[in-house]
Amino acid sequence: MNCPRIANYPLAALWLGSLLAGQLASAADWTRFQDLKATAAGVALPTTDWSPTENQLWSTEIHGYGQSSPVTWHGRVFVTSISGPNKEHCHISSYDLKNGEKQWQVDVDSATQAENTNYISRGAPTPVVDAEGLYCFFEGGNLLSLTHDGKPRWERNLVEEFGKIGARHGLSASLEQNDDQLFVWVERESDPYVLSVDKATGKDVWKVPGVGATSWASPRLLPVDGGQHLILSAVGSITGLDPATGQTLWKLEGISGNSSPTPVPAGPNRFLIGATVGRGESDNGKAADSNGLARVQKNDDGTYQAEYVWRAKRATSSFGSPMAYQGMAYFVNATGVLYGLDLETGEERFSQRLADSMWATPIPVGDRILFCGKGGTVSVIASGPEFSKIAENATWPVEATEAPAEPQGRGRGGFGGPVLYAGALADNRLLFRRGDRLYCVGQAGE
């Protein structure tokens, strides 16, 4: 196999990686897509107000372009990206959380080349990190693990093993993990599959067929009856798998518009479903019928079934997933309207327009919730049944335009401009990722 290579960047203080490798994740770490453990009640925001010139601790350029979320481990920030006219190169970079200094970069030849355009996913799957290292997946079929200081652990080429990856608009499913396994979802047009991989060795634990429907959502582990189910959302249905074996445990059908939002756990046995209004559809009420709260129940014979607890009347989603927090469910639609619904009953408590629609999942912190508008403006509201806007903050200047180093095919940025793809909270700092830059917000001196 081809080992990754580390680009020529200063490796100052990289000995910390081996020192920290045996430590457990803390609430200060953001270790995966939608890692909300760091946002528990009682945690305070580092600041509610910032701008390109106020409370922005640093920003740094990312090599190439990517749509994944940053992940962190004990003062390190890891991001993935791609570059080249045909996405020939995959990149994994590490930055110092305190000052944004680049610590190392690993470059890997892509297992699949495809035109570098905003119509196809570009470095979209978010990696995961744990005490042993970093695990990365690229839409071209590269799956690999590195130590915290960028040294190779194992690497696989899923195209060589399981055939080419062809998916409309590409793959964007992020990795999911438990203590011992990685979960990789390749929902391609032909012969889709779900793969469980041993984190220590990179070898298969199990491989089962995928859903067989369009999806850009990510697999998510849901706590169920003291254990966990792996849930997959693809157009028309949501499926629950046994993480230990890959066996299908239940399937909730009759859903529409659920190709992009990832189901979000809302407590044991329950999850929120996000769904979007399709092109040319004007009946938001019909689309809202697929947005709602579902629960998984165990039958007397030991089997499981899933069903809706309630369905929304008006609320719909966009690319971003909904959020359950402190007794409320939050949905942001394609025009930037935020709907706040009672989590138990689905009763609509308010609807208010935010600065923009969202590609990112909301971030709840203490008694505040951050809504990361795709154009870079982050709205901060108070959690609860009444709408109260605390602040509205621009992450980069409004007139900013991306200037990627590599050609971007038929378009660049997010259909006309830079896009805020993800936000994260780590060690009392906020991180925001757009295609070509990483931003860090907080109070100076902390």
Task: Describe the protein's architecture and organization.
With 446 residues, the chain is mainly beta. The chain has one domain (5-441): Methylamine Dehydrogenase, Chain H. Helix content is 4%, strand content 39%. It has helices at residues 15-20, 158-162, 284-288; strands spanning 5-6, 56-61, 71-73, 76-83, 89-96, 102-109, 128-129, 134-137, 142-146, 152-157, 176-177, 181-186, 193-198, 204-209, 220-224, 227-234, 237-241, 248-253, 264-265, 270-273, 292-298, 304-311, 323-325, 328-332, 337-342, 348-353, 363-365, 368-372, 377-382, 389-394, 420-426, 429-434, 437-441. The strands form eight sheets. The protein has a five-stranded antiparallel β-sheet, with no helix packed on it. The protein is globular, with a radius of gyration of 20 Å. Mean pLDDT is 87; it is low at 5-25, 279-284 and 401-414.
What key attributes describe this structure?
446 residues; Methylamine Dehydrogenase, Chain H; five-stranded antiparallel β-sheet; four-stranded antiparallel β-sheet
The number of domains:
1
DSSP, total strands: 33
Task: Look at the helices and sheets and give the structural class.
Answer: mainly beta
Largest sheet data = 5 strands, antiparallel
